[in-house]
Predict the structure.
Amino acid sequence: MNERTATGPQGPVHEPGLALHVEDLTVSYQGRPALWDIDLDVPPGVMAAIVGPNGAGKSTLIKSVLELVPRTAGHVYLFGQPYRTVRRRVAYVPQRSAVDWDFPTTALDVVMMGRYGHLGWLRRPGAGERRRAMAALEEVGIAELAGRQISQLSGGQQQRVFVARALVQEADLYFLDEPMAGVDATTERAIVRLLEDLRARGKTLVVVHHDLQTVRRYFDWIVILNVRVIAQGPVERAYTPENLRRAYGGQISLIEGFGARATDGVSGE
Amino acid sequence: MTAWDLLSDYTLHTVAMGAAILGVISGVLGSFAVLRQQSLMGDALSHAALPGVCLGFLVAGTRDLGWILGGALFTGGLAALTVLALTRLSRLKTDAAIGIALSVFFAVGVVLLTVIQRMGGASQAGLETFLFGQAAAILRSDLVLMGGVTGVALTVVLALWKEFKLVTFDPEFARTLGLPVTLLEVALTVMVALAVVVGLQMVGVVLMAAMVIAPAAAARQWVSRLEHMVVLAALIGMASGIVGAVISALGAGLATGPLIVLAASAAVLVSILFAPGRGVVWEAAGRVRERRRLRGRQVLATMLSLAREHGDPDYPAEQGMLDAYHRLGTHGVLERLEARGQVRRARHMPGEGRHWVLTPEGRREAERTLAEIGPGGR
Amino acid sequence: MALIRLIGTLAAGAALAFALPAGAAEKPRVLATVGMLADVAANVGGDCVAVTAMMGPGTDPHLYQASAGDVRTLFAADAILYVGHNLEGQLGEVFASVAERKPTRAVAEAAIPTGELILPESADYADPHVWMDARLWARTAEVVAGELAALVPGCADAIRARADAYAAELEALDDWVRASVASIPDRQRVLVTAHDAFAYYGRAYGIEVAGIQGISTESEAGIADIRATVDLVVAREVPAVFIESTISPRTVNAVIEAANQRGHEVALGPELYSDAMGEAGTAAGTYIGMIHANTMAIVSALGGRPLPLPGELVAWAERWQVPTGG
């Protein structure tokens, strides 16, 4: 079916040159399709944005890649392998609303949880894990909040804690779900700088992004999604008004030079 | 009967130890249940133990504790599975599913109780003591069983501490790390069921839910680390058990199991009201403090403005006028300010009400306030 | 022709089939709540009535709740006898509604005036365990006889004769119990049981009684209750404590363990019948057998010597193959 299939040490390898290769992915809940027949390729080393209107399936896409949501059909390969084989190379930053921030724990503790996968069963996090976690907190700029209860953090600080948690996983591919939604401008800048840093180190980033205004500024690869893939590719080529209009229906009012601005309440401003 | 007689009594020791063991396992596992927002699951598991008790008796033919407790664990597990199935396969949310499982299983249990009652046969005696427990009748041999189960549960929690912590906090992220989240959640539920089994003889199926929830809920108010919460919950559970046992030993006819639950509930009430930082009373007191400080600053600022208007730094402000400016009685405020050394009484026209003057300290505070609020109309 | 004869035979057979059950239903059905009362009714009514007990052996009458089936049985009976004085605590409303349709009698309430009841300090109602005193219980025979005679007037004489005979048996039993209990050494003459069912026994036969749990089995024994019992057992050096057939043995076991720990060896005596008799078809399944078994157990375990059975009870003993000890 696909000529670029080879056989590697752990079985058939599909598209090893791509960070993410999705074939025919379909996800449906109770008969209604959330994602339909998705074919997606993301090359390594890019900072990719996934955009689309509400209900387009952006979060579902990430979750189905990470096997958090069952796939009705289709195949997903990361670096040519099924997800389970390369789990260690993938990090996930969920939406802030995914957890109850009233949980009794500190920022440092949450970041250390990112190392649990490396620790394995029965081993306790020790000085090494602490050090890595502190370093990650420094990288996101909130080292001084290490001992703070997470319920006492602002939205932006909480987001940074989540990003730091992903950093300690030392992954090659990062999935972030709306990391800049509802954060202050300083945090947004800090996160973008961090992501660019990661990209410079050769990592791949896939980000569900909420703000159409900033797509051109931050990202070099785009996936426009509305249950199906409307368009994908380098931002200059694929991020066009026509593609956006196809995805958002008639809800776009064009602002020349700035790309487009959705009027269905989706983009932040 | 002296206090020493009471405190060295064998029965009291036995019951208090049993209550303490129960408190520890309830506190530790209850912490996870409460944080996972599955407190009601503890209630469902304990109510669902009743049919298991009856089935165990029916199978064994006698009141064999092993069969009875095994039956309780079995039906508890069934109830948990039922809740899981109901939430996965239908549109019901967790709370409705738990309510249904709880009621159905408990009703089956009551029916089985009456069936057994009708069967006659002398050895069915007293199965309904499992409804509210019979804490005073705990034997040393029971303690061995309770202690063993608790030891196993604590060992598991200790060994899988970080996994349980992560699964409780962020199960999706845990899954991406490759943790078997479902298995871990099942393990936690099974251990709550074990706690229920431990508590069956002491507080009974109806009240066991309180033991699972109360110590953890109380502990949550005081600490902000999971490690501390679990330890504190265990301590509160243990203390409630011992206090309940001691109080019930004081008077004839005081049922021990319910008193233990009352002690734990009292701990929750006290914690909710008085815990620093979160307690209701604490926050209310904080608000009162804030409001008083604010009024004090307002009055000082007014006095300073008046003094500036009249060009006299020692301008004696008349109390009635201050009342009028602030539309409330300033007497209490002024007395507090006086106690803090920020105003003093002026000997000025005593026949026309009290007069007050700013002290240097008060003037500084007032200047600070005026600087903060910036220029504006007055 | 043959067809008509066949139909005729079938019709006659059907008519006969309908007639037979009607004939078999001649004996009035008397429903008693507890076995002790049913036994009295059976002894007094003899062949004239069919007696059944609603609660079987091992059933606790304080807690018993009527099911739909029970209510139907109650309404199907021709007469209902219950003890009253709050023994069948959960059935009050049911009796009230049945009483409107069928002859219903609170036998102990009719036979024993409230003045003779024991009023425990802690409860607000009288102790209902009146059958523990055989002479007191003997009075119920007369009340039952009255009910049954009204139900089956044809049997009235036989019924009254049987009632007198039965009352005589019970009075002989009463004397025997008193004499046997008297053989227990004074110091140890203490009856410790799980709940306060034996107050009448104690009053009638001169033995001190202590129930761990109080009058009703609904309450839960507390630590203080257990401690008080242990104190008593240790102080009086009581050789044995007793479990009952209808109560959980755990509280008694707790007392034993605590007393042993204090250095006093106390044994677990044989099971006593308090709220219900033994299995039907055994000696203890009769009222006399219940009191007899209890007394034998109590007297032997506490270090006394039961007397041989009196003459009036020899017939009973032979019927149930109970050694008379004579």
